[in-house]
Amino acid sequence: MKIRVLGCSGAELPGHNLSGFLLDGTILFDAGSAAAALDRRGQSKIGHIFITHAHLDHIRGIPFLADNITIERRRQQVAVISIPPVLRTIRKNLLNNALWPDFSTIPDHESAVLRYLPLTEGQAVAAGDFSITPYRVHHSVPAVGYLVEDRGKRRFFYTGDTGPTPATWKKLGDRPLHGLIIEVSFPNRMSELAVTTGHLSPLLLKEELGRLPHLPETIYITHLKPQLAGTIKKELDKLNLRNLRLLREGETITL
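The structure assignment produced for this chain is given below.
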């Protein structure tokens, strides 16, 4: 499994792209930077977008990707996939023919650029060579993380945005994770705000990892607020986890 990091920032500033992870060139997890970080050829390969939640920094690229497909008259249909509350928010507040055109009806219903596929929590769906299962996580809006497994039983879990979420780890059970992509948005001094808004700090991350029956082979940290990144990095270093590393935008990780 190869995952290209299109964006892993918890805020938008020059040189800091919003959340987006591209699996084997065709399956996108969150779409904060889908159109901005991928060239036309890269965009043309996307067939599935799995959305963790409907906050703008995780969905902003969808309208522009759809617009690019339409302008170039590509015969490309993209499935926008998540739990029903997330899809309802996107349809009602983003692709609603007011803020942006409804690309689920353009050019017509049968050949629409976008189609919505609702998921059921805990039930796997197939996408390409992968089995992908949504699990509810704790955030300020309805949100899921995704367990991804290939045919060789290699697997990773992407949390999206989450605060402390013990129920999620219980549902994942004792299946070993070869990779965990997990957010840490705030430094320890802001842990109370992190909990209130559904995010993690380094100390909260340590508590979450303690709930896992096995530490993942590699723990990848995403969604740092760039204004606070220096402090967060120092606090993560103090956890003394050899298998923990910060993600970098533009890199490709292999699991």
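Interim note for the steering committee: The radius of gyration is 17 Å. DSSP finds nine helices and 14 strands in the chain.
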